[in-house]
Design goal:
Elements (H helix, E strand, L loop, with lengths): L8 E4 L2 E4 L4 E4 L2 E2 L4 H11 L6 E2 H8 L7 H15 L4 E4 L3 E4 L40 H13 L2 E5 L6 H11 L8 E5 L8 H9 L8 H9 L4 E6 L5 H14 L3 E7 L8 E5 L12 H4 L3 H13 L10 H10 L4 H21 L4 H4 L15 H10 L3 H9 L7 E2 H8 L10 H13 L4 E3 L8 E3 L2 H13 L3 H24 L5 H9 L2 H14 L2 H14 L5 H17 L4 H15 L4 H16 L6 H18 L6 H10 L6 H17 L3 H17 L5 H13 L3 H15 L5 H17 L3 H17 L3 H14 L3 H17 L7 H18 L1 H11 L4 H8 L6
Parallel strand pairs: 8-11, 8-12, 9-10, 10-11
Antiparallel strand pairs: 1-2, 2-3, 3-4, 5-7, 6-7, 13-15, 14-15
Helix pairs in contact: 1-3, 2-4, 4-5, 10-12, 11-12, 15-17, 15-18, 16-17, 16-19, 19-21, 19-22, 21-22, 22-23, 22-24, 23-24, 24-25, 24-26, 25-26, 26-27, 26-28, 27-28, 28-29, 29-30, 30-31, 30-32, 31-32, 32-33, 32-34, 33-34, 34-35, 34-36, 35-36, 35-37, 36-37
Length: 856
């Protein structure tokens, strides 16, 4: 194990760690602690009170080896069996800290910030600035970097331009100025050319190399020294700096090196410390909590430097967080944005992010290098360090919104098939370079799935500028849209062929939602209806219910496009099917009309497309049961049954089960609907989908079948499981049916909080009439008949405005019961007048009426 020089003996509590003998005594007796666990204890005990990150700790205990995280966990478990749980504290997600009180401490070595320095006859100058900004949000990075440097002589701090590499390295040198006999030295390389590298290093050190070969003279001057050298901004001289570091590393064993660069040196002796953006809180975070995040702390500090009156409050903290998030937590961009705050204000600053390259030019640091004074300059520095091929790939990546898979990016960027020089392998090599240089981020994905790649928003804005300058933007956007359409077309078939589970499919498609939106805009701009509908049909299926307004607007746009354009019948059929699904819960008449259009097209398709006809028949039967005489739905339902193939996966047969339930429900067959509801839950699980929506429908079916207590139990458990998750649509459905169940069991006290939470969701998902049925019954059961009567009028008006017939057993029962209670309390004439008056209510007025407390 490589470490700073340990003390001969460390005592803490009942324990004594004897480093030279390599043993741990417990109450004076040798323990059976294994060698790796002992190394682990020694590494932590030599750094008492310091946070040691997992990565750094593994470098200390297993130097030069690649080991799995579970090895560290196993050795920590073995160690704690001997020393207990009070000696070493675990900091979740960060690392470990030795917290026991040491009775005899280790002698300080290079790892400490304050050990006494050995005298030097001729101390070298540090070249560090007299003052520099505070290091905000990087305390753990600084500690972990120091631990890594204790174990290895050459550490490269790698990250994107403007990420804060230089400041982190400067603070490391500041902390260690007294830790080495000849101190520390900062060597700025940004303006240095390759031929001048040895001389520039000697000049920074204040070393006179004399005439002759400068590298040989530099080696001679440095060989006897013990000190820490920092080479800053090495990305444009990677090969030369790598050779210099290796030469000095071999010739001067007392030297340690820190290199800041956008790419690693790729030396065997090098350890890479890659730093990422500053942490950004969620937008809703309160000021006190938001201030603990590095990005917000930096923004506030720099904003106050420009305007001392600026303060972070609960009112503006969400806006500050949104600005920091829009800037991807990039410190340079945050500093430049904060400088604009007094002039623009936070609202306008956030709204101006699309013009960030023109906006973020107001550096407050005249001493900063030119590359760090504007966001554009930082990006130009990074771009200009690339070779011609990599610059082409970088700018073409600008059309990829969010992130993209390797296959998708190769389809978009490569042009060899069109007579260009970039084939898929060249693109792969370029991506590797861009990742190395911290211009392209690798997005973490689930196990056993390929990675995705993403340009952060500021580099993407610059890439698009370069794409415009090259005259390639329109062609690349078209290629992007075509590549995504091919991906979406295949994905649609993947879904119904069950090549992956339904939830996995949704998650995978969710990663390309931003790409889909951009591709749709391109298709619409080009007037390409086939391209637009190919994208839109799959997108309608891929959009989660939480994005209901977007899904609804997309269905509207598809309808308009189908009316005005001519596209192939199979694509038309697919689009009408997905539009029918999109409208099924909110616009039943429209959903039915779309299903009928799909059915007519499906009947004319190739005879082999059996599933398309089955799918359209099921949708038609289900929609027909909701909007007209359910007896009319029996014919298409029977035809669908005859087409159904027992070998089909759950992704297909679930449509038949769903139609069966709708028809049974509409016909008043509660027992039959309940059987199908239970089957739907099983099919959801079989198709790899969370069964929450199926369980919500099961609550509705249990209630309709007369099992109100069972419905209340099922609903309560479902709501509890969904609260605090992002499944807002499913939670709304569960609350709707749970509220109905509580009212059916005459428990308005339990129903009221559920209804209060439900109402805003019902408005968002366009279910106000469904929810208001139960609000009316709640008011009636709470002996507020006037409110109940008016709410019934509101329900009547919404149904009429939507041209929708009431067809739900449970909603009909709630309306009938609320009306009966209102008439019994007020009399028929008064109840009728109030019900007519309620038809004029607006949605914004319903909550006050529904949850008021009047008793008249």
């Amino acid at each position: 194990m490589t470490s700073s020089t340990p003390a001969a003996s460390l005592r803490f509590g009942r324990f004594e760690l004897q480093s030279q003998e390599r043993r741990l005594l417990v109450d004076g007796k040798a323990s059976a602690l294994g060698a790796r666990a002992l190394d682990l204890l020694q590494a932590l005990a030599e750094r008492p009170g310091r946070l040691v990150g997992k990565r750094a700790l593994m470098e200390l205990v297993w130097p030069g080896l690649v080991v799995q995280d579970n090895n560290l966990a196993a050795q920590m478990s073995a160690l704690r069996k001997v020393v207990g749980g009070d000696v070493i504290a675990t900091i979740p997600g960060r690392g470990y800290r030795f917290v026991a009180r040491i009775e005899s401490a280790p002698s300080a070595g290079p790892s400490g910030a304050t050990p006494p320095a050995a005298p030097a006859s001729a101390p070298l100058r540090t070249n560090l600035p007299a003052e520099w900004p505070a290091l905000l949000g990087r305390a753990d990075d600084l500690a972990e970097l120091g631990t890594l440097l204790d174990a290895h002589r050459l550490v490269s701090i790698v990250g994107a331009g403007g990420i804060g590499k230089s400041l982190l390295a400067q603070h490391l040198l500041l902390a260690r100025r007294q830790a080495y006999p000849q101190g520390v030295c900062w060597v700025e390389l940004a303006t240095v050319e390759a031929a001048a590298l040895p001389g520039s290093v000697a000049s920074a050190l204040g070393v006179h190399v004399g005439p002759g070969e400068p590298l040989a003279a530099l080696i001679g001057a440095l060989a006897p020294l013990t000190m820490l050298l920092a080479f800053d901004s090495a990305e444009h001289l990677l090969d030369d700096v790598a050779r210099l570091c290796q030469t000095l590393h071999d010739a001067a064993p007392g030297l340690r090196f820190v290199v800041t660069s956008q790419a690693p040196l790729k030396l065997a002796s090098e350890r890479v410390f890659r730093i990422g953006p500053l942490a950004v809180p969620e937008p809703a975070t309160h000021a006190a909590k938001a201030r603990a995040f590095g990005a917000v702390a930096l923004f506030v500090d720099r904003a106050q430097a420009v305007d001392a009156r600026f303060a972070l409050t609960d009112g503006n903290a969400p806006l500050v967080a949104e600005v920091c998030r829009a800037l991807d937590g990039l410190p340079l961009a945050i500093e430049l944005a904060a400088a604009r705050t007094p002039m623009l204000g936070l609202q306008r600053l956030l709204a101006s992010m699309q013009d960030r390259l023109q906006l973020l030019t107001a550096s407050r640091n005249r001493a900063a290098p030119a590359r760090q004074r504007t966001l554009r300059a930082a990006l130009e520095w990074s771009h200009d360090a690339l070779d011609a091929r990599d610059q082409v790939v970088f700018r073409r990546l600008g059309v990829v919104a969010g992130s993209g898979s390797l296959d998708f990016i190769q389809r978009v960027v490569a042009d060899a098939d069109d007579g260009g020089t970039l084939d898929r392998w060249a693109v792969l090599d370029a991506l590797d370079t861009l990742v190395d240089r911290s211009l392209l981020a690798v997005i973490g994905v689930h196990d056993n799935e390929p990675p995705r790649y993403r340009l952060l928003e500021s580099p993407r804005a610059y890439a698009l500028e370069r794409l415009d300058a090259a005259g390639e933007r329109a062609a690349l956007q078209r290629r992007h849209a075509l590549a995504l359409a091919a991906l979406f077309d295949a994905a649609y078939d993947d879904y119904f062929s069950a090549r992956c589970g339904a939830d996995d499919w949704m998650r995978r498609m969710g990663a390309d939602l931003d790409n889909a939106r951009d591709a749709l805009a391109c298709a619409r701009g080009a007037g390409d209806a086939t391209l637009e509908l190919t994208l839109a049909a799959t997108l309608l299926r891929a959009l989660p219910p939480s994005l209901h307004p977007e899904r609804s607007a997309l269905a509207d746009a598809c309808e308009a496009r189908l009316v005005e354009a001519s596209v192939a019948a199979p694509l038309q059929c697919r689009a009408w099917i997905e539009m029918s699904c999109a409208w099924s819960n909110t616009q039943k008449a429209r959903s039915h009309a779309a299903a009928q259009r799909a059915l007519a097209l499906a009947r004319a398709l190739e005879p082999g497309d059996r599933f398309a006809l089955y799918h359209a028949l099921c949708l038609s039967a289900g929609a027909m049961a909701k909007v007209s005489d359910p007896a009319q739905a029996l014919a298409p339902l029977a035809e669908a049954r005859a087409l159904e193939d027992p070998a089909w996966p759950a992704q297909r047969v679930i449509w038949g089960a769903q139609a069966e339930q709708f028809v049974a429900h509409a016909r008043g067959d509660g027992a039959g609907a309940l059987v199908q509801a239970r089957r739907l839950v099983e099919l959801d699980l079989q198709r790899g989908k969370d069964a929450s929506i199926g369980l919500g429908n099961l609550v509705d079916a249990e209630l309709a079948a007369g099992h109100a207590p069972a419905a209340a139990r099922t609903g309560a458990a479902l709501v509890a499981s969904l609260q605090g998750t992002r499944h807002e649509f499913t939670l709304a459905l569960a609350r709707l049916n749970l509220c109905a169940a509580h009212l059916a069991t005459d428990d308005p006290a339990a129903a009221r909080p559920v209804a209060q939470a439900l109402w805003p969701q019902a408005l968002f998902f366009e279910w106000p009439h469904y929810a208001a049925c139960y609000l009316a019954l709640l008011a009636a059961l709470e002996e507020r008949p006037r409110a109940a009567a008016r709410l019934l009028g509101y329900v009547d008006a919404v149904y009429a405005a939507r041209h929708e017939e009431r067809g739900s057993t449970n909603e009909d029962a709630a309306i009938a019961r609320a009306a009966a209670l209102a008439v019994a309390a007020l009399g028929e004439p008064a109840a009728a007048r109030l019900r007519a008056d309620g038809a004029l209510l607006r949605a914004a007025e319903v909550a006050a009426l529904a949850f008021g407390r009047e008793t008249a």
